[in-house]
Structure formats: structure tokens, C-alpha cells
Amino acid sequence: MERITRRSFLQTTGLLGASAVLADGVFHETRADKPINFAGWVFKPDTVKDYVNVYNQKFGGQVTYEAIPWAQYHPTMETRAFGGEVFDVMYCAHNFRERWYDNGLIRPLDDLPGMDELKKKMTPQNLESLKSKDGKLAALPYFTSLFVLIYNEPMLQQAGIKAPAKSWDELVEHSLKLKKDKVSDHPFLLNWNVSPSGTMPQFMTDAFSEGASVFDAKNRVIVDQEPGVARAMERWQKVWKAELVNPEVLTKTSSTDTHRLFWTGRYAYHTNHSYYLKTIAGEPENSKLAPKKAKMTMYPGTGQTYMWTDSYAINAKTKSLDDAWKLARFLGGNLAGDWYVQRQWCLISGLDNPYPEMYEHPDIIASYDRWVDLKLLRKQYEKGKVIAAYKEPWYSEYDVKAVPIVHNMIRGGVSVPQGLKELVKLQKSLV
Amino acid sequence: MLVICLVIVFPLAYSLWMSFADVNLLRATGPALELFGVRIPLFRYVGLQNYARLLADPLYWDAFWRTAYFVGAFVCETTVVGLGMALVLQERFLGRPLMRSLLLIPWSLSRVVVGLLWIGILDVEFGALNGLLYKAGLIESYVSFLKSGFSALNVLVSVYMWNQAPFATLLLLAGMQSIPMELYMAAEVDGAGYWQRLRYVTLPALRGILFLILVVSTVNGFLMLDLIYILTMGGPGNETTTISWLGFQTAFQFFKFGPGTAILYTLTVLCLLLTVVYHKIVFRRLEAAEL
Fold first, then answer.
1. How confident is the model at residue A30 (pLDDT cuts 50, 70, 90)?
2. Residues of B with CB below 8 A from A103's CB?
3. Given CB atoms, is A92 within the 8 Å cutoff of chain B?
4. pLDDT, tens digit (0-9, with 9 covering 90-100), for A155-181
């Protein structure tokens, strides 16, 4: 047995120490050395926690995550920023992005490593929508969505309707027949809920489907000059007057509550955000129209519908930009070549993303196949139309104050030309 | 004293200041106060501009009259129903202690829960009330209680009354128990019936508590926000938008904290004015009698 001398002990421990230091140097690139605060609104917070755990374990991060209720998320983030708190990475809804960017809460991402590569992988509409007014990229995508038309196949079959409506006239005709035959009290469920995700995006969607514009190139409201908008509103008045729409949809407080009505199987047609088809047609434990009794069909008219992109932004005051960027890239792009979070959102919730290559992944193709015709959904996405008006400082107020005007128009409280003029007047008053 | 200043006086004074300022929380540079080492931005002073704008805004006046109706109906319903329940629970009957305990359940529920509960009761598709009325043959098809603005506003009044009347009952019951039995016995000897005893003994003795109920329910009525949030979000149209909802929207949806605070301060002024009016009405006769 070899004797341990003072010299051999020192040599051995020295070697061990040196190797530990060298090893740390080798792994240093993948280990974050500063804590990162990450905040998001409440949507599947346990799933987000899992993502954070994966990130912390795989990439040596020190991320702490806080979920804030959706309804008060943006005001809370602003008041906490006002109090000096810094969340390095934050969710940011599309209609708040410009405000946060313009007021210096979040920073542009164009100068960060790998950003050019991610930009090339994104669809041009989404990329454009993530840019601020000065043309700089303000955030990475959390998800993208657009309005789709969903139909209740068993109900149409029961009424002897062989195929879903391909035009607005046909849709109204189907709905009148279903009501007359007492198959459904309110066959058409439009997303007219009072929240910012309801009436106004639905208004833009139906205007786009008529080939009309809502804003001009300078983001001014021009609905009074667009015959297509008037046609859409006349149709809304007609379906309301004929009692084809559940009147309580006007007081539903979210798109989520609205889509849940469709679970009952008592409606024939429904317009809402694309990802809600996942619960309608893919969750038999919740919906009577699962599995796949509810299907999507191309939106009538031009097929164009309103599309938007919510996002992950990086705080302009972050003290750990490298680590914040790494986390943002893990969440809203690919890190080390892996699209983990973007892929998981597709699989778990049917949240779409702006990276087309995601839809070539066999797991995603198999998952979507359980609740939607993926090819048709992708075709609908090609028709997605983004707006730039939400980048204007008046947009949030316009978006909320326009809802009562549109509701009055729907209910015939004001004529279509008058209502459209009121929308134009409202926007002018806020500039 | 320092604690009171920090917790009450300072927030009040600061929010009052904000109602005279152009507030952007994300741009807190400019003049500021230093308090215990904490920088408190003062934002840009705009004088009476926020108040002038809201007083010229037809939306504000629509909300004002709607609020007046809401508060009036709510205060009347709460007081009458609260008094009715207190009179019933004052009588001796089997199960009275249980009823008195059950009474407090609506009041002890969070208003978010109350809102969700009533959505379940009133919903046009699956609402329990519609089911009940339909099975009883009272309606031919399910009724939409939130379809029109006026109906939705009355639903809000009734749901809030359901939540708040038990508190009024509790206060009135406590008051009734402090009325000496001798007064009722003397009234009976004088030949007073039930309604006369109520008119000449019970109600005058409850004057102080009724004043408290009027003040508390008026303030609560003016400030009610959470049920609107859960049940209607101010719709359909603007038809359930009250001043508190308008103030909340202005501050937290449009991020106009200055005008939002100004709107909410007009509520404070209204509450104070009405408290004075109530005091004069309720105690006028008492003071006249004492003189």
C-alpha cells in the first residue's frame, strides 16, 4: 500500500481543485450565474412552471416565475415597474407592446445574437406584427392566433344540411332553417363578448372577410367609407333581429366563456380564436362536440380573418441581458436548436406559433389530427390579416369604447351608416 | 399618528393630487417628493383639466344617472329586505337559530363567487332559474335576463342586494334585541296592533341603525365594481356602466390614471354629500323632539 505523504496529498488535492476549476470553465457557457425574474399572465401556470424547471435543469438557469391574473396583468406589471421592480422577461399582449416599448419598459431585440436567424424562420405577417412603430423587433412570439369558423357537424346532418356554409348568405340560410325546424334556438354563436378579445376583433374579422379595411395606411378608422363593413354590419343586424344569436353573448365577459357555450352542442356555427377548437373538438371530458364532431371550415367571403401575436418581452432595465435573452429565446424561439416551449404549447393547448417548420414535426401533426384538419388550419393562417393600428396610443381606449357603439348597431339602436360614422368620430376624438 | 398618516392620509392626499395630474406610471421622471428615502413622483400638474373633461363627457353623465338609479334601487331593496328578514327572524319559530346562521352565508361569500353563482342561476342556456320557471310552466322558452341593459342593471341590483341584505338584517336584529320589552307591552296595553308597534316602537328605536345601513349601503352601492366585472363588464353596450366601472376602465384599461382618479373622487364627494343628507333626514325629527 502506498504511503500518503504531505507532498502527494498536496499534489492530489491540487489536481482535483484545478480540474474542478477547469470543468467549471467548460460548463460555464451553459450555466446562468444571475437570477432571472419571469412573469406571465395566468394561463396553465403549472405548465409554465414545468417549462421553467426544464430550463433551469437543462440550461443551468436560476429563473423564478410569477403568474399574475390575466385581467390585471398589464396594469400590475406597470405599477410594479413604477415601484422599481424589474421582471427580466415578461409576457406582453400585442396591444400593450407599443406602449411598453415607447415608454422604455421593454427593449428592442434586433441586436441580440441569433435574432436574425429567428426572424428568417417567422412568417412575415407575425414578424411585422411584433415590430414597434420604429421598425425594431419589440418581442418574441408567445403564440399567434386568428379567427376561425367552427361548425357542429351532427347538428347540420340532423337538419339535412350536407356541407358547411361556404358563403355568408348560405350561413344565414342554414341558421334560419335550423331555427325554423327547432333544431336550435340560436344556431349562430358569434364572438360578440364585451372584452377586448371579443366584439372588436370579430368586427375586424367580418370586415376583412368582406374584403374591407378598417384602418387606412395611417391607422385612421375608415369604416364609414367601406361598403364591405356596412354589409357585415347589416348581416349582424339581420341575424340579431331574426334571433339567430344568443343575446347573452353581448354580456359574456371573455372569449373563453363564449366558446364554452358551444360545448353544449346547441349551436350550429361558431366564430372564435383558432385554439378554442382544441377544447371544443378535442376534450370529450368538457365538450359534447368532442372528438371531432365540431370542425372548422374556411371563413366565408375572402376568407381573411383578424390575426394577432402575443409575446415575450425583455425588460430594458434587466441587469442580466444575456440570461434574459437566453430565457426569452427558450420560450419564444429555439435554444440550442430545440423549439421545446413553442412545440409544447402546440401539443398541450393548440396554441399556434409563427414558425411554419413547427407544423412539419410528426408529434404536432399527430396531435392536431385529433381535433382539427391541420392543412385547412394552415390554409386559414395564410389568410390571416394583421393590423398596425394597435401600435397607436389611442388604440386601447378606442377598442373598449367602440364596443357599445357596435353593440348598439347590432341591436338596431342606431343605423349602420350612423354607427359606422360614430366609430370614425370616436377614433378622431381620441387622437 | 404616524401610522394613520402613512396608511390613510398620505394615500388619500397622493391620489387626490393624481386627480389633478397627467399620470403615466411608466414615465415617472420629473418633480418628485422624497419620503423616508423613497422617491414619489408628482407627475405633471394639469389643474382642473381632468375634472373639466369628465364633466363635459356625456359618457360620464350617462354613468352618473345609471349609478343614481343603481344606488337608489340597491339602498331601498337592501333596507326593505333586510328589515323584512330581521322582523321574521325576531319572531320565535322552530329552526330560528339555524335560519339566523344560514342568513350570513350570502354576506360571507366573496363577490367573485357571488357573481359566478348567479351566472349559474340566471344563464339563458343552463340557468337553474330558467329551468325552474320552465318546468313550472311559467315561461315557454328560456329567458335572457341580461339581454337588455335595464334588465341587466336590475339583475346587478338584486344580486348585490342578495349579497348585502344579510348584513343589514344582522344589524337590525341586534338593534331589535336592545329595544326594551316594556315598550312593546305598554303599546299592547294601549291597544296597538303589530303594524302600529312596528310604526311607533320598533322603527323609531332603530333610527340610528337605519342611518348606519343607509350610509353603508349607499357607499357600497356607489363603489360596487366586482359584480359588474364578473356579470356584465359594463355591457350590453354601456348599459351597466356605472361611475365606479367607468373610473376603473379609465384608470386600468386606458391607463389614464389622472382622469380615472378624478372620476372616482366624484364618487367620494357624492358619498359625503349623501351622508349629510341622510343624517338630516333620519335625525331631523329626533332633534326636533329633543328641542
1. very low
2. 24, 26-27
3. no
4. 999 999 999 999 999 999 999 999 999
CB contact under 8 A, A250 and B26: no
| Residues in A touching B59 (Cβ below 8 Å) | 401
Please answer whether residues A190 and A271 qualify as being in contact, where contact means their C-beta atoms are separated by less than 8 angstroms.
yes
Identify from B116, B126, B147 which residue to disrupt to test chain A contact, counting A C-beta atoms within 10 A and taking the largest count.
B147
Q: Do B24 and A103 make contact, defined as CB atoms within 8 angstroms? A: yes
The CATH architecture assigned to A145-307+373-430 reads: 3-Layer(aba) Sandwich (3.40)
Q: Where are the domains of chain B?
A: 1-47, 54-290
- What architecture is domain A32-144+308-368? 3-Layer(aba) Sandwich (3.40)
Nearest chain A residue to B141 by CA distance is A185
Under an 8 A CB cutoff, do B236 and A194 touch?
Answer: yes
Do strands A188-189 and A269-273 pair parallel, antiparallel, or not at all (unpaired)? parallel
Q: Are the C-beta atoms of B156 and B73 separated by less than 8 Å? A: no
Q: Give the mean pLDDT per block of 10 residues along chain B (291 residues).
A: 84 92 84 80 91 94 96 96 95 91 92 92 87 91 86 96 96 94 92 92 93 93 94 90 95 91 94 88 67 55
* pLDDT over threshold 80, residue A32: no
- Distance from the A40 Cα atom to the nearest Cα atom in chain B, whole angstroms: 18
CB < 8 Å to A86, chain B: none
Q: Which of A427, A430, A390 is nearest to A132 (CA)?
A: A390
Q: Do B233 and A195 touch (CB under 8 A)?
A: yes
B235 → closest Cβ in A81, A251, A413: A251
Residues in A closer than 8 angstroms to B254, CB to CB, are: 396-397, 400
Residue A242: pLDDT above 60?
A: yes
* B28 → chain A, closest CA residue: A82
CA distance A116 to A108: 13
pLDDT at B42: 85
Examine the pLDDT at A33 and tell me if it is beyond 60: no
For A264, the closest of B125, B142, B241 (CB atoms) is B125
* A429 and chain B in contact, CB less than 8 A: no
Minimum-distance CB partner of A247 among B147, B230, B234: B147
The 3-state secondary structure of A81-108, one letter per residue: HHCCCCCCEEEECHHHHHHHHHCCCECC
Whole-number Å distance between alpha carbons of A385 and A304? 6
Residue A1, pLDDT above cutoff 50: no
Res. A29 pLDDT band, cuts 50 70 90:
very low
Q: Using the beta-carbon criterion (under 8 Å), do B25 and A250 form an inter-chain contact? A: no
Of A271, A124, A135, A141, which Cα lies nearest the Cα of A208?
A271
For residue A148, pLDDT over 70 is answered with yes
CB burial readout B40-70, b (16+ within 10 A) else e: ebebeebeeebbeebeeeeebebbbebbeeb
Asked if residues B166 and B104 have their Cβ atoms less than 8 Å apart, the reply is yes
Equal CATH topology for A32-144+308-368 and A145-307+373-430: yes
A343-400: per-residue pLDDT in tens?
999 999 999 999 999 999 999 999 999 999 999 999 999 999 999 999 998 998 999 9
Among A71, A82, A397, select the one facing B28 at the smallest CB separation.
A82
pLDDT at position B151: 93
Which residue in chain B is spatially nearest to A262 when comparing CA positions?
A: B125
A256: contact with B, CB 8 A cutoff: no
- Judge contact between A126 and A285, C-beta under 8 A: no
**CATH code for B54-290?**
1.10.3720.10
> Are B235 and A103 an interchain contact pair (Cβ–Cβ within 8 Å)?
no
Strands A140-152 and A305-314: antiparallel
Domain boundaries, chain A: 32-144+308-368, 145-307+373-430
